[in-house]
Amino acid sequence: MDRILIDDLRVMTVIGALPHEREIAQPIRIDLSIGVDLHEAGRSDELNATVHYGLVCERITEMARDSKDILLERLAAKVADVVLEFDLVDEVEVKITKLRPPVPEAVESTAVIITRTRAEAAAPPLVSHTAYIALGSNLGDRERYLRFAVRELGNVVSMSQVFETAPVGGPEDQGAYLNMVVQIETPIDPYALIRRCQRIEANALRQRIVHWGPRTLDVDVLFYDDVRITSEHLTLPHPRIFERRFVLAPLSEVAPQLCPADWEATLPPSDIYPRGPLNL
After folding, report:
1. Which pTM was predicted?
2. Set 68, 78, 95, 98: catalytic member
3. Which of 113, 214, 263, 266 reaches 20 to 30 Å from 38, CA-CA?
4. CATH 3.30.70.560 domain range(s) in the chain
């Protein structure tokens, strides 16, 4: 599992069982190893795809300063609960060190280490969202661009076969498209997902010169859960899904429940040929 490390966070708090420990705050050190899937953050460079360690420190410090626990074990468990409240955290290891242990021997510090997972903590389960993405390419090595998109999207749970289709709209001298639809599971919100799709297009050298013109890669969000959005930057579901046979044909293979029952009969005919599964 990927890890985010926070080392040597110092907090003054009341901790301990002895009378003088119940009256005067003393310094403790908190070290964290946070287990979180960082694949999306590595691909997208988006803050909401990772855990904001500054905010983690702020919330832990606020909680610990007001805490008046007797045992380090109790404070460590409370720190773990705070960390596991962050959406993407799946596991956390907490080490709390008492820097001034009240023992007569020459001991520099005492500490406890605990490991807690989301499954055993009082934290909400991780939320995963289902999205359907349409992919298309009619320039260069078309299959390679489709494979690139599948790899970059990550956590693809279902894929249609590839369809070869005649271009619809745009310049008349375009080459044929390869189209497919994939289903993904993602923790990010719809706006972060559309930015990610646009970044994938840019990394595939997509150029927006001619409206509906040829492109190396087209990555369109069709559906995101049952969310409906109409804004300047994003419309969900995609507004032209039900007009396009080259979208509905592959979509019907991964999510037939999202297609109109009579779409094959009502849409005008177009040249579309199944080519089989994408060779990954």
Report:
1. 0.61
2. 98
3. 113
4. 129-276
